[in-house]
């Protein structure tokens, strides 16, 4: 497969066309941003680690019956995925209080919830990705009712699967963000990326943060934290 013209450059990835109109070539970068790109940096090795970690999670979810855009890992930093049009809705699932939820509701970081909390954010950098509810999604025509129901249900299923997988490896899945997209036939698929950039992972035994909060909060050892996640998933060899 040949890499064609660059379709899109995001904060952490570049997406290229291929000679197959239904497939795109994704390259993971070492660039890191936080707070809607008001904080910028580089984490050496992040592109490689996130490419491998994300490939691993999508493969695992597919084995468990969750359809997604992932097709194959091409190289250390590259993968081939199905081409989809991403819906402008980010779906966040939370098992414990952290980040914006802890701030907004005045909850102590780390308290665990008896049931997961699902939230939707409107993907719009100009508006700083505001929190929206299902009525807002309808108002904005950002997703249909069926798509919304499917996103919520899939997100909760992903939460059950990944929480268990990570727990077995001594890691607590605190929260994470998912994105979904429509393929050419209009079929909704889980897409984008699942990695320490998009999830909060805490080491269960120590509470140590092994995710992008190390970058957001200048905690240091960011690359080692991402590598630790990859090692816990059986890392070292390329998936
Ligand atoms: N998240 C993400 N991209 C975003 C916003 C959030 O991947 O643009 C992830 C984040 O890493 C965390 C979860 O979604 O795992 C919830 O993030 P939160 O709303 O707490 O925002 P934060 O305080 O991290 O900006």
Give a concise summary.
Helix 1 runs parallel beside helix 6 (222-232).
Overview of this protein structure:
There is one protein chain. The protein has 239 residues and is α+β, with helices and mostly antiparallel strands. The protein has two domains: 80 residues, 2-Layer Sandwich (Phosphorylase Kinase, domain 1), CATH 3.30.200; 137 residues, ATP-grasp fold, B domain (D-amino Acid Aminotransferase, Chain A, domain 1, 2-Layer Sandwich), CATH 3.30.470.20. It has six helices and 14 strands. The strands form three sheets. Strands 8, 9, 10, 11, 12, 13 and 14 form a seven-stranded antiparallel sheet that branches. The chain has a five-stranded antiparallel sheet with strand order 1-2-3-7-6. A two-stranded antiparallel ribbon has the order 4-5. Helix 1 packs parallel to helix 6. Bound molecules: uridine-5'-diphosphate (UDP).
Largest sheet: 7 strands, antiparallel
Which consecutive residue ranges, at least 5 long each, have pLDDT under 50? none
**Radius of gyration using CA atoms only:** 17 Å
The CATH C-level class name of the largest domain: Alpha Beta
CATH superfamily of the largest domain: ATP-grasp fold, B domain
Instruction: Characterize the overall form.
Output: globular
Q: Count of helices?
A: 6
Structural domains: how many:
2
- What is the rounded distance between the termini? 19 Å
Helix content: 25-40%
Please give the CATH architecture of the largest domain: 2-Layer Sandwich
Strand content: 25-35%
* Class of secondary structure makeup: alpha+beta
Distinct ligands, ions and cofactors found in the model: uridine-5'-diphosphate
User: What would you call the quaternary organization?
Assistant: single chain
Mean pLDDT: 97
């Amino acid at each position: 497969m040949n890499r064609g013209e660059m379709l899109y450059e995001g904060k952490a990835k570049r997406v290229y066309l291929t000679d197959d109109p239904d497939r795109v070539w994704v390259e993971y970068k070492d660039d890191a941003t936080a707070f809607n790109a008001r904080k910028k940096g580089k984490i050496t090795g992040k592109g490689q680690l996130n490419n491998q970690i994300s490939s691993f999670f999508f493969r695992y979810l597919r084995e468990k019956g969750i359809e997604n855009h992932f097709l194959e890992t091409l190289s250390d930093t590259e993968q081939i995925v199905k081409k989809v049009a991403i819906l402008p809705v980010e779906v966040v699932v939370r098992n414990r209080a952290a980040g914006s939820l802890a701030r907004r509701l005045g909850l102590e970081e780390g308290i665990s919830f008896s049931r997961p909390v699902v939230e939707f954010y409107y993907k719009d950098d100009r508006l700083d990705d505001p929190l929206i509810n299902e009525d807002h999604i309808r108002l904005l025509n950002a997703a249909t009712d069926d798509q919304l129901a499917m996103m919520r249900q899939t997100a909760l299923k992903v939460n059950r699967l990944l929480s268990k997988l990570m727990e077995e490896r001594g890691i607590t899945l605190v929260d994470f963000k998912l994105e979904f997209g429509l393929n050419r036939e209009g079929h909704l698929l889980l897409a984008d990326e699942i990695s320490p950039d998009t999830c909060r992972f805490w080491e269960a035994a120590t509470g140590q943060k092994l995710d992008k909060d190390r970058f957001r909060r200048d905690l240091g050892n960011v690359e080692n934290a991402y590598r630790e996640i990859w090692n816990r998933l059986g890392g070292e060899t390329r998936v």
